Amino acid sequence: MSNPSPPTTATEALEAWLPAYRQRIEAALDAILPPASTLPFTLHEAMRYAVLGNGKRLRPVLVYATGNALKLDYRRLDGPAVAVELIHAYSLVHDDLPSMDDDDLRRGKPTCHKAFDEATAILVGDALQTLAFRSLAEGDAADADAGARLRMVASLSLASGSRGMVGGQAMDLAAEGQELSLAELEDLHIHKTGALIRASVMLGALCRSDVDRELLERLDRYAKCIGLAFQIHDDILDVEGSTEQLGKASGADVQHEKATYPGLLGLQESREHAELLIERALRSLEPFDEDADCLRAIARYTIERQH
Fold first, then answer.
1. At CB < 8 A and 24+ separation, what contacts does 207-211 make?
2. Domains plus CATH for the chain?
3. Phi/psi at 65 (nearest 5 deg)?
4. For the whole model, what pTM was predicted?
5. How far apart are CA 193 and CA 125, in angstroms?
6. Cis peptide leading into 6, omega within 30 of 0?
7. CA distance linking residue 144 with residue 262, whole number of Å
8. Who's near 35: CB < 8 A, 6+ residues apart?
9. How many CB atoms lie within 10 A of CB 41?
């Protein structure tokens, strides 16, 4: 029998890791989310609706991949992986609300406020956010070391709040209809999208208490670069992708007059900028051995994905 052909794309390379990582995070999410048969029924049903299903799971996969690069047992990583995905899910539910981006479709199905109602969607986001921090407090992360748990709570809190993701959303709303410079646009997305991606990598790294400071800085640089590249590619997909392909409404950025990389730089220069960021991310991983290959594949996947 001949050897299989080597992978030609980052998505193909990731197939060696993604099924196991996604199965693991799905099981962990299912376990921590209250059953729909538990009072209040509608709220718990809506929480499960918003979280479980066909998400990319990029952020928890980054937690696992970082832990793998640092040779950690996956059981230490489940709590942080769950926490970051719950924060991400809450942000999507709130971002989709009529008072925010007013979206009707998410992950190929009606958004939470469409499937249920607006008040329930607000409560779903609130409940998912608090459940995320319970996951850090009670999970097996960092061998139950209180100091490591505290550092992870601090990291995720900073990335999620007004100096991170929530602040980025506020900046994004304020920028609608405005012309931004490249530096202003980058700052917006460092907060809105990049902060939680950086936190995903940091949470994985913080599960190892003796991680070298230089390696920690390299991982943070890697995460910052792929976070920005991810957003640039998202902006490109919003222009070039279809609603069916994306699982959400295409062209929404133009409709809402949002500041985007293609709008500022054009499509080709946006692609080149994203490519440069990925090259920087990969250089940051040079001291790591083959256990960091999943992180390398994720970097390429960031700008090769189709949704």
1. 207/67, 207/70, 207/72, 207/76, 207/77, 207/80, 207/141, 207/142, 207/148, 207/152, 208/67, 208/70, 208/72, 208/142, 209/142, 209/143, 209/145, 209/147, 209/148, 211/70
2. 10-304 (1.10.600.10)
3. -65, -40
4. 0.90
5. 17
6. no
7. 45
8. 44
9. 12
Interacting residues of 100 by C-beta distance below 8 A, sequence separation 6+: 94, 169, 173
How is residue 288 written in tokens? Answer: 């790591």
pLDDT digits (tens, 9 = 90+) for 276-292: 999 999 999 999 999 99
181-235 pLDDT tens trace? 889 999 998 998 899 999 999 999 998 888 888 999 999 999 999 999 999 998 8
Residue with tokens 């993701």: 165
Give a three-class secondary structure readout of the chain.
CCCCCCCCCHHHHHCCCHHHHHHHHHHHHHHHCCCCCCCCHHHHHHHHHHHCCCCCCHHHHHHHHHHHHCCCCHHHCHHHHHHHHHHHHHHHHHHCCCCCCCCCEECCEECHHHHCCHHHHHHHHHHHHHHHHHHHHHCCHHHHCHHHHHHHHHHHHHHHCCCCHHHHHHHHHHCCCCCCCHHHHHHHHHHHHHHHHHHHHHHHHHCCCCCCHHHHHHHHHHHHHHHHHHHHHHHHHHHHCCHHHHCCCCCHHHHCCCCCHHHHHCHHHHHHHHHHHHHHHHHHCCCCCHHHHHHHHHHHHHHHCCC
Measured CA to CA, the distance from residue 109 to residue 99 in angstroms comes to: 20
Nearest-10 Cα torsion for 36, 130, 188, 212: -120
